[in-house]
Amino acid sequence: MRKPALIRSTVAVAALAAGALALGGCAADAPSGDGSTTETITIGTSLPLTGDFSQGGENTLQGYEVWKAIVNENGGLLGQQVEFNVVDDGSDQNTIVSDYNYLIGEAKVDLVLGSQSSRLNIAASAIAEREGYVYICPSCASPDMFNRGFSMIFFSQQATAAEQGTAFAEWILGLPDDQRPATAAYPALDDPFSAPVAAGVQAILEEAGIETVYSDVYPEDLTNFDTIATAVRDSGAELVVQGAQFQDGVNFVRSLNRVGYAPKILYQSSSPTYGEQYLEGVGAENAEGVFFSASYTAYADTPGNAEFLAKYHELYGDQDPPEDAADGYAAAQVLQAAVEAVGSIDDQQALADWLHSNTVQTILGPISWNADGTPNGVFLIGQWQGGTAQIVFPAEAATTDTVISTWRG
Fold this sequence. Notes:
- It contains 13 helices and 14 strands.
- With 409 residues, the chain is of the alpha/beta class.
- A 4-stranded parallel β-sheet has the order 7-6-8-9, sandwiched between helices.
- Helix 1 (13-23) crosses helix 2 (54-73), helix 7 (226-235) crosses helix 8 (247-258) and helix 12 crosses helix 13.
- It starts with 12 loop residues before the first helix and ends in a 16-residue tail after the last strand.
């Protein structure tokens, strides 16, 4: 049995980057003056295929490519074949601004899809909003995406960062009094996604009376977490909620081991979703019982998931799709639903108006949006159990009936 595919995987950087560059400008026909094409619809995107966010960028591209293959095999979008114009932003905010200016202003793509990571999408979405293009992003959970009064941006996961730990917090509050932690610590990476995840859980638990005994935001370049781990140990926190990306989460667990502290319950926002990389980084025994947030599982009984899985395996091998690939595919599903409902790619405002008023069925589940582009959904909560990443909440999406109540349990 394969592990539930909420985990991320490593892919060949050079191969994907080369493929993306080959895709740039490969549409069969140049766009006409009204934004449409004779035989193809061109979708532009800038992704971090190199640099700090390259792992997520590569996997997002996989999701876009799987969607394109399925759509084209089924007759295309509005009867036209789909092509992507993909450029590499190198994980740089300034570059991605130039990229979307190029895609919209010079390449004159018909549609756009978003990039990977809140940091890049915050910059890129401002260009799309200015130019009046619908901007659907697969990875833009930061609250800073949605506090600017924009009307053309849509996040295609189930919840923004502040709500991604809600199901976990509710589980904590549902524990019997003699099992519920009385104190909690909240170390978080200074990142527009990671910090709000921890802050969202903290707000819920504080309101319910769970005492915060440690809370701090650490810089991106921090590699030694011994000081933070010592402070958490000395605080006596029974629950630790870390807003983490990948390496910082691994390093924090290593530091907890060095200072000899094991909180009763450990939650990390993203680091555990990196699958085998996480297990190798912390050791399987240290992953046991760790909770985390996730948007996708391969076992989901959601519209189109079986088709997505089959095509992903055909294109990329037997390993189940990484979470970012599923998120990319879902973003393309959202764009497809709007285009097919409106029946045209010529009116971007009509596409936005339709999305604001409707629910789209995706492989992540049903998604609808508020006026600011934030989604109305419930994020999945996973837990490492016996070397396997399982979904434990919500109950309807769970891949196991077991919940380990203590870290290293």
